[in-house]
Description:
The chain has helices spanning about 5-35, 40-70, 85-110, 115-145, 145-150, 155-185, 190-225, 230-250, 255, and strands spanning about 290-300, 305-310. It is mainly α. It has a two-stranded antiparallel ribbon. The longest helix is centred in the middle third of the chain and has 34 residues, at about 190-225.
Amino acid sequence: MENPAEAFFGGMLVEIMIACVLYGITTLQSFIYWQKYQNDTPSLKFMVAAIWILETVHTAFCMQVVYSYLISNFGDFEYFLSIDKGVGITVIVEVVISTLVQAFYVRRVWIMSNKAKLLTFFIGFVTFCRIGFGIGSTILSYHFPNWVNFRAHKSSLVTVSGGLGAAALVDVLVALTLSFYLTRGRTSWQKASNSKINLIMLYAVNSGAITASASVLSVILYATQTHSLVFLGLVEIQGKLYANSFLGSLNARSHIRNKNTAAQYPSFEFSSNSGYRAAPPPVMSAPKVEVFQQTIVTNDMGEQETDFGMKNLKGGELV
């Protein structure tokens, strides 16, 4: 006799285990953030703390769903058809986490686009649609008594596919928009800055591609795997991907800022064996070009800091 638990819940069990591993990475990234970025704004610190707390709650209810299906109702195959009460909580918490992270990226779009209202409004509107679809899916999970009725109703298909589709659209739009404006910010003579821009673009595109792919794959699994909860397990993983994407972008700032930083070498003075310091050979003095360097840094909160520096250009002698 074939075990129905394997086909119905086996895929989700593996995905929940992966989600727990990702939660451990989230906890590690949160710890690294609090150690390295103690001077960040209180609002950003609060958001990091909120993300970690929500992730903890989400992981706890994911484990509760697994425990309810496999332990509390062990041997009761009919319970597999029922929608556990913890499912709705995991869905709404995942929606809150993804919305917070996407709102953070929408603010970056607002800053990078020089406050382009139409573009930012459209991406923000799609993000709010994602919230509406997520709330609808949560309500339907408590309205319908079992998975058969839930899948048979067209409203559930609309809320699930609409919510995941909206999330994928926001991820793609954010990645493309940030890449576009970062490309415009390149210069032909600052190789170090271009290298940093390429690194930021790579991270933005990869993050958006991973979360968007997870959303699209969840919709496909929901439509094709009608006798399995494998789609739900991927939805739970998606929340962890958003949290790690957000924390990774914050923790990567120091690495990006220090990339290609010019090395500073100490200078040495040599003396002869007699104890007298050897005089350096005379060097013909020549006028040098002095230039002012202005650096404008925009942080994640949209605040700009201007730094003026002056340095001598080597090899810039006038002839």
